[in-house]
Amino acid sequence: MMALIFSRDIPSTVSGVVPGVIAPALLLLNLVRSIPLPPIVTPHTLGVDDFCFRKCKTYGTALIDLERRRPIALLKDAKAETLAEWLKAHPGVKVVSRDRSKTYESGIRQGAPEAIQVADRFHLLQNLFQTLEQVFGTHAKALKEVEKQVFSTDTKVLKEVETAHNPLIAEANPYPVVPRFPQNTSLKRKVQSAKAQARRRDIHEQVWSLRSIGLSVQAIAQLQTAHSDLKSAIELAQQFAFLVRQRLPEQLDAWLNKAKNSSVSLLRSFAVSLESDYNAVKAGVTMSVSNGPVEGHINRLKMLKRQMYGRAKIDLLERRFLLAI
Hints:
Distance between the termini: 11 Å
Shape: globular
Largest sheet: 5 strands, mixed
Number of helices: 16
Number of strands: 5
Structural class: alpha/beta
Radius of gyration: 27 Å
Strand order of the largest sheet: 3-2-1-4-5
């Protein structure tokens, strides 16, 4: 708002209204509201996502031109009808990137039936994570029991990692963790030391990433052995994540068939939900279109809302969002 209120035009307008007097806040806000919005150029590729107006009770929709990476409109709600009306009023959109929302899927289908809908890859992986979280939740008791059994055997690896990466322990160690190479050190020794350093780094990253979710390598291995359905879920999740990240659409149909025939009911449900949105999912793992720029603008929109204590109505919020770029 500071960029808008204290621009060259507004202060001169205010001083013209009341010379020598500081303009009230309400007058400044009204002046901002009177600034015309930029004309909308219908984008070829559109990004759609929702945002919360206040306390996540009411939602609006942000529309982003993904080619220019610029916001073009804020809609007053997150209803399918509102999005459909906007698309009908601005024909020419060819590609629309969205999350897995059925509401937006319906709105796009009604307003731009010829447009290609793309299910964003981040949201596909987020849905996979939520499914896996539920799968692991059904094995919570087994996870705790196995973790108790392997904790003592895992402490040795943890101690090695802590010693290698804790600066206080490293200082007390008479032998440095990562030795410096003297000028006459052979290339072979340099390579060996570099490999040892890489191994310590890999151990550190692996152990602590697993620790961050409460698991160890041994725990996962034992659980996979004892629970075949859990092993199947992990393998299918890894395969799906790989085909999404590498954008391998030719593997999607085979994966869906395997998941639908899986012994894990939650993965079967996940596969069915993907199949119900098949064209968008297929486009998501085929095309390079992403909702990444949309998420960035949503974060900026949240910052603007906080600056106004969450009290701004859509007319003021829209001007700050669209004009202050």
